[in-house]
Amino acid sequence: MKKFALILTVAVLSSLATIAQDIPKKEFTISVSDKSIALQPGETKKYFVTLNRSKSYKKTEIDLLIDSTLPEGVTVTFENGLDPMVNRVMVVSVAEDAAPNAKAVILKGKSLRASKGVMLNLSVNDEAYTAN
To answer: Does the predicted TM-score (pTM) go above 0.70?
Structure first.
C-alpha cells in the first residue's frame, strides 16, 4: 500500500510540474500546433493556437495577427476555438495562382499591455513532397 501511495504521489507531483511549466509567471505565451506551415496552391489548412496566460492575464483580451508581409495569394484568418480565451484556430489559405514561396512570418498576440510573437515557417510549394 505504501508503494502505491508513493507512486501516486510522484505521478501527481509530476503532473503539477508539467502544468506549472505551461502557465507563464507573467503576461502570456503563444504556442502553435505546427510552426512549419506548408501548403500547395488552392489549399487551406487549420492550425491550433494556444494562449497560455498568467494569472493576471486570465481575462485580458488578446488579438492575434500576422506581423509580417504575407506572400501574394496567401491569407490568414483567425477563428475562436472551444474556449476563445485559450484556444484559437489559425486558417491559412493559398490562392490557386500563388507562386512558390518560402518565408518566415511572425504570429503575434497583442493586448493593451503586452505583445508576444512566435516565428513560423511558411512555404507554398507547387508540387507535393513524397518520401522515397
So the answer is: yes
